[in-house]
From TrEMBL:
This is ImmA/IrrE family metallo-endopeptidase. Pfam families: Peptidase_M78. It comes from the Bacteria. Residues 27-153 form the IrrE N-terminal-like domain.
Length: 157
């Protein structure tokens, strides 16, 4: 099982370059990411126990979702593995709203870390102080949805 602080160090290392590469983070944590075709559109992702892998889990993501959405899903599943691997059991599936069988507070925690992974505050502030201030521009720079970026910046929608 992953050590929390070591895992967060890996995340930080990958946040030096924007946009953050979610699959690279997963791979460095010993987790493989698979894009799955022909999933129902209301299925976003899945994380499943894999005792053979170094990270202990595999991540699956809906191939038909747009890239920004896949990136958020992957970050969300990575967050599940980092924060509460013991709650995953043999596996969990996240629906379109990134809800699984886990509690709302656990899902909210995973969403928070996913946002932290994709939109590190330090880098955001750097871009903003360099004059990149529109939600659309920042969303493009960080390769996230405008909705995710607006939430991150606390912009009313
Ligand atoms: Zn989830």
């Amino acid at each position: 099982m992953l050590n929390l602080n070591a895992a967060l160090d890996v995340v930080r290392e990958h946040q030096r370059k924007i946009p953050v590469k979610t699959v690279d983070i997963a791979n460095e944590l010993g987790i493989k990411v698979y894009k799955v075709p022909n999933w129902p559109s209301d299925l976003s992702g899945m994380v499943r126990k894999n005792p053979e892998s170094r990270g202990g889990f595999d991540i699956f993501v809906n191939q038909d979702h747009p890239e920004v959405r896949r990136r958020f899903t992957i970050a969300h599943e990575i967050a599940h593995v980092i924060l509460h691997p013991h709650l995953i059991g043999d596996g969990i599936t996240d629906d379109a709203l990134l809800r699984s069988g886990l509690s709302n507070s656990v899902e909210a925690q995973a969403n928070r870390l996913a946002a932290d992974i994709l939109m590190p505050r330090e880098k955001l502030n750097e871009f903003i102080s360099n004059g990149v201030t529109s939600v659309a521009q920042l969303a493009k720079t960080f390769n996230v949805s405008e909705q995710s970026m607006a939430i991150r910046l606390g912009v009313p929608q």
